[in-house]
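Subject: sequence -> structure tokens, single chain

Hey, anyone have a minute? Need the predicted structure for the following. Not urgent.
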Amino acid sequence: MITDAPLPGSRSNDPSPAVPDYPSRVRGCLLGGALGDQLGAAVELDSFDLIAGRFGADGLRDFSQLPEPGHFTSDTQLTLYTLDGLTEALEWANSGTAADEAACLWLAYLRWYTTQEGRFPDQAPEPLPRWIDGQTVLHARHAPAEACLSGLATGEMGTRARPINRDAQDSSSVTRSAPFGLLPFVDDQTVQRLATDGSALTHGHPAAHRSAATLATLIRLLVHEQATLPGAAVAMLARAEHDAASAELAGRLRAAVELSAQGPVAPADLTAALGDGRSAEEALSIALYAVLATADSTTPEQHFRRAVATAINHDGDSNATGSIAASLLGAHYGEAALPGDWLAALEGPDVIRGMADRFLAQTQG
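Reply:
Had a minute. Here:
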């Protein structure tokens, strides 16, 4: 499919020859998201007072402050399973057979469910295993979101028309949605549809769907339209403000953009303005704020370090906000932004790269 025109104000005019290539952006997004998730998991749901008591007045800013590197959570696991579902749909398409992308995603999420619960849900189909299912690092149980487990446990495929978990709007619907924006050769509307349908598989609340679609579209703008970070944020804010159903999301995005103009603020001011990141809209807004507020950094790596630290040091869902912020920066800068010492501490980097390679093999001639 031919991509549509970029959203107004979203394309970068920077002619710099250092623009990362597509594979680097894909790997940067996935590895970056895992880094933000893993570092944030060390302080997930802790108050900032507790974080400061453990790590000092500036909070947790580096893996070297931890007694051990720790683990990424189900947010990264589900992101990779999202990518696997999309990869399977591409495999079918490349072989000449149309596939239902939402069904491929659902089957991928069911296979993730078995890694957490040891069995497929009653009444659910049992798809054949794929490469990702043999990666034991993804079987560990690290804070799986209740909405994801309960939605899949029904054995029914949730849709917008037949919602599952009607009130579910937690951050786990958005953290797993970055891969939709990585898809090449599809237009903006397709990315939004896929992300929305993917969210609806486990989350029934429209706020979860809108946040998932917004993150996916932000990633698409960065990867495929070479958007600037502020340009992509302004474009998505304008879109939300023109959609009456997205009034709350628009308010969150505007608050994030306006707060970011002040640069990094105190954690108490951050949560007072944007929330604690437990809901999808809050997590997205905190991550966006963190990325924009630290944009005066001198190098991509410095920007990555500062933005992730800003995203995770607050009262609330630190791994979700860290994951989203790092996914955005990895998509924008590619692998050049990822600190080498952080990558050395990352759990399962070969698995993440392996999944990226399988996706890229289906997207490049």
